[in-house]
Amino acid sequence: MLAGLDPGAVASAARDLAGRLVLCVPEPHVPRDLPELPGSPLPAPPGREMKRALVGATTPRGYRLVVGEEGLSTYYGSSTVPAAVVRFDDLAGAGIEQTDGQLPILHLFGRHGGAITVRPGDWRGGRALVRELRARLDPAVCFDVPEAMRMFEQS
Prior knowledge:
Elements: H1 7-20, E1 48-49, E2 63-67, E3 71-76, E4 84-87, E5 91-97, E6 105-110, E7 115-118, H2 126-136, E8 142-144
Parallel strand pairs: 5-8
Antiparallel strand pairs: 1-2, 2-3, 3-4, 5-6, 6-7
């Protein structure tokens, strides 16, 4: 036993975590008794498609980001099915990754499992987009990205 930890408190925290845990698995591997998260999958919010930066983008060719008043969604290629959806009313957390002193990289996480990274240098108008998103984020869901989660050195 670790000093100061009460086994009952640990068990209670584990039960609480299990009640809130969101598990994402490929369709063929979903356990039959796993309850589906209400409202899943989230519909992609309407918005404007961002254009990929001509120089310096780290996103793959064909990766598309759509930004709207209700949230963001990403797509690959010509697919109309979103790869990820993060709605502002479903935001679970926003990692703020400080880089080279410029604007930060944002890692947005939704309660329904969506995760979208917004790096200013990946998009035309990306700096304005990051400023706009930062202004919308509730400080209560923001956290500094720990070293182990960092993805980039430059924004």
